[in-house]
Amino acid sequence: MDNKKNPWLMLSFFFICLSLNNHHSLGADTISANQSLSGDQTIISNGGNFELGFFTPGNSSRSNYYIGMWYKKVSLRTIVWVANRETPVSDRSSSVLRISDGNLVLFNESQIPIWSTNLSSTSSGPLEAVLLDDGNLVLRDGPDNSSKRLWQSFDHPTDTWLPGGKMGNNNRNKQNMHIISWKNSEDPAPGPFALELQQYFSNYIILWNLSVPYWNSGSWNGKIFNQVPEMRLNYIYNFSYVSNENEAYFTYSLYDPSIISRFVMGISGQIQQLSWLENTKQWNLFWSQPRTQCEVYAFCGPFGICNLQSLHFCNCLKGFQPTLDNSWNLSDFSAGCARKTSLQCGNDSLADGKRDMFWEMTNMKLPDHPQPKAVGNSSECESTCLNNCYCTAYAYDDSCLIWIGDLLDLEQLDSRGRTLYLRLAASELPSFRNGKAINAGVVLGSVAGMAVLVGLIAFVIFRRRKGSIGTEKVVDGLLVAFVYRDLQNATKNFSEKLGGGGFGSVFKGTLPDSTAIAVKKLESISQGEKQFRAEVSTIGTIQHVNLVRLRGFCSEGTKKLLVYDYMPNGSLDSHLFQEKNSGVLDWKARYQIALGTARGLVYLHEKCRDCIIHCDIKPENILLDAELCPKVADFGLAKLIGREFSRVLTTMRGTRGYLAPEWISGVAITAKADVYSYGMMLFEFVSGRRNSEQSADEKTRFFPILAASLIIQGGDVLSLLDPRLEGNADVEEVTRICRLACWCIQDDETHRPPMGQVVQILEGVLDVNLAPVPRSLQVYVDNQDHIIFFTESSSSQSSQARSTNSNSSSQSKSSVSSTSSKS
Predict the structure, then answer these.
(1) Residues with Cβ < 8 Å from 487, sequence gap 6 or more?
(2) CA–CA separation, 288 vs 148, rounded Å?
(3) Which of 192, 242, 304, 668 registers the highest number of CB atoms within 10 A of its CB?
(4) Which of 352, 425, 821 is nearest to 596 (CA)?
(5) Backbone angles phi, psi at 197, to 5 degrees
(6) 742 within 8 A of 679, measured Cβ to Cβ
């Protein structure tokens, strides 16, 4: 037949040709024996959860393509498995994934096999590769014997452990299963960090280069890993352990299958449990270990130093520069740093007679693999290192330690660290350290400089004696070191008192630029000048939208003051417990304040260099800005007071009901003490009154007991609500807060959720089950006439708002409740 006379035949032929390059030529979730996958073709699991095909990682501009698997229903492409993670292809159109010789094989553009399932036994029947809806790619006999799995991706994970997958050991072939991090965000090749199971101890460890363990989950007790208390509130993930003669492994599932969750060995060297939030288009962190970045072994590579206060955590030591700039831009620091100038050791004709010298580095965590040397003093230790061309550093306290070769796992600490002496070429050090005599010109210049300095000092003293305001100076680019006389002037000689407490009194002031401030005069502070400045400087670096911002300080002899931003709306208690209905906080505002407060505590507990325990969470220490955004106040005082805090605490009387049982029993205090206080405060958000107060018709009922009992019995939660709200509240949110509060006040601190989980529960990411009624609450009720709880500022519980409302009830006042944050 003439083609020109049959256009339908030509059109049919055209569509057949097009179909050869369209993914619809494959089965929806299957690559059959006579099919292949290339170009932009993909297969999609039956329920539409996962998709498999070629991809380019991250924002890479390189033409590197990989066969991988990602979530189909997640708007942000997230790769969970990669086949050829070490051997990319450059042309996906001519590269093919197909079944060949009893295996699933990837052929590159030259038709060379670069990845395979590597099965040695062959099947007699036709094979097919099927992408299941749990993210498992399975190679199996054809549809007639689909239950027989010859190979599955769950047995060969890359960096992600999906629900339903296994993580463990195969006793038959003596192989350990690992999940290994990507090298960086644009390279899925195996990185330096891996997670594996230690079968004989039933615990997980994280390894650096599969050789150095730096984190341990603790043993499995049948419910949780001992070092992962976040698992105790087990209402999302159901973990189980299987051990038999063939294998030993852990697996986990989700109580709610609609949740999208993954467990990842991140490029940061931290394992992370993540859940997808579609409304925010981002992955939400459920928990991670190790908790801080600098706990990851050798994260910054050779001659790199980790610093939690640094923007990217890693920096090169003095005299060094990044080995691979591009890798550092991708947060891959594993290659570390290289010397800018070679050492002179072994060179007999030293330029200008300069030898290698040492740079002093204070407050350091010493690097790994030191070698002890038996010498008598520091000078001998220095000489020992200098005489060894391979020695790169030394340290000397009571003994001598030297390091040969690369320096690994360095960390910048605060005052707890030690001093390390780094070996550098002399040209990398200031010229005055070369030992040469100082010439006359330098001497004359120094004398002239001293004269100018003395003149400036005299001028400053003269200005201060005149009582001028504004002579403060910036410390570390963040805090202002105020002059005491200036603060006297700013506060009109401390005439307008806003509040007071166990640590001192707070006064209102105004700076010359009309900025309102709150000045706290500290009492019982025994630190010296240097220690006080160091502690305050540390606190001053801690800034968060839900924390009060410290503007500056004053330290002149025994006069120790802290300067904060002033907040005209005062503290939460003045709004929460006021008797009049006018201006009462509605439920929406209360819920957002509870959430914001929790976020502030998460920052203190988990995001700072050292975990900061507030030790006095209550409404008086929660401040509200103009938009009712909560700010946690007094958060640095526990750190600032240090060991004296416990003494001050036990000598001050006050509000009952916020202190965790461990305070009374005398055991060590952890961040879970704050969780307890926060939980007690949540009950007050609901009731609108103090837990320690009793209404006329409930003289024998302690409100937390009443709330916990009603929640367990499934009663009407709105009956617990502040009557001033007239029932106007979200029932689900009230129930959530009451259940959460019950978990927060558990007697055993390990049963209380960390603040990170508290935030997720309030955000609605996590559900919360019923909690038992703590026995200590009933003891408290039975003995409330004999038991007194103490807080550091409990003798004075006011807020800034009380200073502007003379009709407020005479409660004791919080020490910094008059401050706010504009951060």
Answers:
(1) 509, 519, 554, 561, 563
(2) 36
(3) 304
(4) 821
(5) -95, 135
(6) yes
188 vs 87: CA distance, rounded Å: 10
The helix (run of H) or strand (run of E) holding residue 452 is helix 440-465
DSSP classification of residue 604: I
Residue 201, pLDDT > 90, answer no
| Residue partners of 151: CB distance under 8 A and separation at least 6 | 103, 104, 117, 119, 138, 139
Query: Whole-angstrom Cα distance, residue 499 to residue 797?
Result: 8
Residues in the chain: 823
- Mean of all residue pLDDT scores within the chain: 79
Cβ contacts of 194 within 8 Å, gap of 6 or more: 178, 179, 180, 181, 206, 207, 210, 265
Give the three-class secondary structure for 402: strand
DSSP class of residue 585 equals P
In terms of phi and psi (left: phi > 0; alpha: psi -120 to 50; beta: otherwise), the region of 453 is alpha
pLDDT digit string, tens, across residues 706-737: 888 888 888 889 999 999 999 999 999 999 99
pLDDT at 647 over 80: no
Percentage of residues of the chain with pLDDT beyond 90: 44
What's this model's pTM, rounded to 2 decimal places? 0.57
- Alpha carbon 294 to its chain's center: 11
Domains and CATH numbers, the chain: 22-156 (2.90.10.10), 157-291 (2.90.10.10), 341-434 (3.50.4), 584-808 (1.10.510.10)
- Catalytic residue (choose from 159, 356, 616, 634): 616
Q: Which residues contact 16 (CB under 8 A, 6 or more apart)?
A: none
pLDDT in tens, 359-413: 999 999 999 999 999 998 999 999 999 999 999 999 998 899 999 999 999 999 8
Q: Which tokens go with 371?
A: 């070698």
pLDDT of residue 450: 60
DSSP type of residue 62: S
Is residue 811's pLDDT more than 60? Answer: no
For residues 125 and 90, which has the higher predicted lDDT (pLDDT)?
Answer: 90
* H-run or E-run covering 634: none
Higher pLDDT pick, 499 / 439: 499
A 10 A CB-CB count for 660 gives 27
SS3 119: coil
Gap between the Cα atoms of 163 and 250, Å rounded: 11
What is the rounded CA–CA span in Å between residue 136 and residue 133? 7
**d(C-alpha 83, C-alpha 158), whole Å:** 8
* Rounded Cα–Cα distance for residues 84 and 44 (Å): 19
User: How many angstroms separate the CA atoms of 697 and 681, rounded?
Assistant: 22
378 neighbors 408 (Cβ within 8 angstroms): no
Rounded Cα distance, 366 and 422, in Å? 11
Tell me the per-residue pLDDT of 583-597, one tens digit each, with 9 for 90 and over: 789 999 999 999 999
Within 13 Å of residue 252, how many CA atoms lie on the same side as its CB?
A: 20
- In angstroms, rounded to a whole number, what is the distance separating the alpha carbons of residues 804 and 722? 25
Whole-Å CA distances, 24 to 16, 19, 94, 489, 555: 12, 7, 18, 79, 74
Token pair 């003994």: residue: 399
DSSP 672-695: HHHHHHHHHHHHHHHHSS-TT---
Least confident of 4-13, 86-95, 200-209: 4-13
Q: Is 133 a catalytic residue?
A: no
